Every structure is written in C-alpha cells, then in structure tokens.
C-alpha cells in the first residue's frame, strides 16, 4: 500500500488512518510531502521534513517513508514500489490526481477521524 501526506503536527487521526491503511496489505509506504513541495502548494509545515519523516518512521504501521516532491510522481511511485493499493483520506475522493491511478492499482479512500485535523490543531494552538 501507498499513501501520501504532509503529516504535520502528527495526531491521533493520522495514527488511525495509518493503522487502517496498514491492515489492507502487508507493507505500507508513506510518501511524505517535502518542505519544498509544500512551499509550492503555498503551505508551510510546523515541523521540517526530516522531523516529520523521523516521526513517521517510528510508527509501527509504517514500513517505508519516501519523499513526495511533485504532484506527478504518483504513477512512477506505484510502479517503482510495486503498489497494489493507494490509500487516501476520504476528502481526496474524486480528485483526478488519484483517480488516474485506478489504471495502475486499486485506490481506496478512508474516512478521516472526526474532530481532528492538523488545521484544527494549528488553530487551537493560536488561541
């Protein structure tokens, strides 16, 4: 399996998503958005790529963390890592950047955990 994300301010919603994704197969690859890729999207992470990668690598559900450096790398990732299933949060359902992968593998959308998001955490920390 393969999933993509920024995984900034790692929280229980992330952990639950990774746990559910890992149960769909026997090896979970996480493509982690680099700081440069996030900047191109107009986003900035609280933690650097290196710290976010270290945190993800410490989670027992995650087998490998690779850099996500551009939108159009997904097909190459699926081929390179022999991926059968790409797993994403339900808010990505219907996005053509993931729908195109259906020609190469199964794409599964998992509902996010209610009541938690990195955006929510950042907003709460501002108060």
UniProtKB/TrEMBL annotation:
Signal peptide: none annotated. Pfam families: CTP_transf_like. GO terms for molecular function: glycerol-3-phosphate cytidylyltransferase activity; metal ion binding. Residues 2-123 form the Cytidyltransferase-like domain. Its EC number is 2.7.7.39. Keywords: Nucleotidyltransferase, Transferase. GO terms for biological process: teichoic acid biosynthetic process. InterPro entries: Archaeal_FAD_synthase, Cyt_trans-like, G3P_cytidylTrfase, Rossmann-like_a/b/a_fold. The keyword Nucleotidyltransferase applies. GO terms for cellular component: cytoplasm. This is Glycerol-3-phosphate cytidylyltransferase.
């Amino acid at each position: 399996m393969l999933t993509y994300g920024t995984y900034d301010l790692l929280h229980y919603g992330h952990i639950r998503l990774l746990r559910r994704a890992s149960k769909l197969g026997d090896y979970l690859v996480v493509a982690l958005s680099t700081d440069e890729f996030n900047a191109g999207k107009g986003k900035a992470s609280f933690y650097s790529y290196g710290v976010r990668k270290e945190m993800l690598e410490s989670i027992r559900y995650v087998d490998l963390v690779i850099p996500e450096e551009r939108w159009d790398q997904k097909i190459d990732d699926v081929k390179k890592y022999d991926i059968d299933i790409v797993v994403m949060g339900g808010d990505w359902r219907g996005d053509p950047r993931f729908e195109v992968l259906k020609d190469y593998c199964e794409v599964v959308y998992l509902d996010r955990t209610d009541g938690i998001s990195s955006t929510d955490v950042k907003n709460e920390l501002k108060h």
